[in-house]
Amino acid sequence: MLRVARKQRGFTLLELIIAISIFGVIMVMAYGALRHIADTAHHLEQRSEQLADLQRAFFIISKDFQLLADRKIRDQFGDEQPALMVDDEGRVEFTRSGWRNPLGQLRSSLQRVAYHLEEGVLYRDYWRVLDRAQDSEPLRTDLIKNVEKFEVELLPPKGEEWKTSWPPYNNNPEQVPASLPKMVKVTLSLKGVGDVWRFYAVVQDE
User: Fold this and answer.
1) What's phi and psi for 142, nearest 5 deg?
2) Quick check: is 3 in a domain?
3) Model pLDDT for residues 122-155, shown as the tens digit of each residue
4) Which phi and psi (to 5°) does residue 190 adopt?
5) Does residue 6 lie in a domain region?
6) Does the residue 195 lie in any domain?
7) Which of 162, 120, 144 is nearest to 52 (CA)?
8) Residue 159: what pLDDT?
9) Cα–Cα–Cα angle for 44, 49, 51, rounded to 5 degrees
10) How many Cβ atoms sit within 10 Å of the Cβ of residue 164?
11) Contact criterion met (CB below 8 Å) for 181 and 156
12) Partners of 198 in beta bridges
């Protein structure tokens, strides 16, 4: 009995074109999905870095403002300056306590620090001495970048209205102006994050 050989049949040109087209569509969809996943992962990584930087910045800011000290200083010209100063441009300068001294140096445990925003970077300055000489220069650290706003608001001990400058203006010559507020509010605004704020109660000397 003779066996009839089966006829071998290949793909037609039309079938190949359809298969390649379907494969191409699948590849485009897969590339789009992978690109979306990569972009999302990159965005989440950037946001995580921003939040970590913000947390580190507020850690340092909190240590400073929680230790506000009622200690005036003399500047490089010999003029007396308040324990806390906040100007209309948002620059903040004050005396804080608790400056650690692990090396046992001959210096005070009080420290003069300042915060100011320049071109999207929040800087922290500090001086090695409280009462400055003419050659006393601050040491500067860039605390956090991509800052859109840095604002400090202060609540006077006997007031309910927040101030954006300090010491507050006092038109009563018989009333001694307060050296420190009873509460401080610090607001930081970062690109892509928005406003983040913290409140700090100030311990008043009796």
Assistant:
1) -80, 110
2) no
3) 999 999 899 998 888 999 999 999 999 999 999 9
4) -110, 150
5) no
6) yes
7) 144
8) 76
9) 95
10) 12
11) yes
12) 186
Domain count, the chain: 1
Q: Is 58 helix (H, G, I), strand (E, B) or coil?
A: helix
Question: Tokens standing for 96?
Answer: 């804080």
Using CA atoms of 92, 163, 54, 127 in order, give the dihedral in degrees to the nearest 10: 10
Domain presence at residue 5: no
Question: Which strand (E) or helix (H) includes residue 80?
Answer: strand 80-81
Q: What pTM value is reported for the model?
A: 0.73
Confidence band for 65, pLDDT divided at 50, 70 and 90: very high
- Local structure of residue 156 (DSSP, 8 states): -
Residues 117/89, Cβ–Cβ less than 8 Å: no
Task: Return the bridge partners of 121, or none.
Answer: 118
Contacts of 113 (CB under 8 A, 6+ apart): 64, 93, 94, 95, 96, 124, 125, 126, 127
Q: Are 45 and 53 in contact (CB under 8 A)?
A: no
DSSP 8-state code for residue 83: S
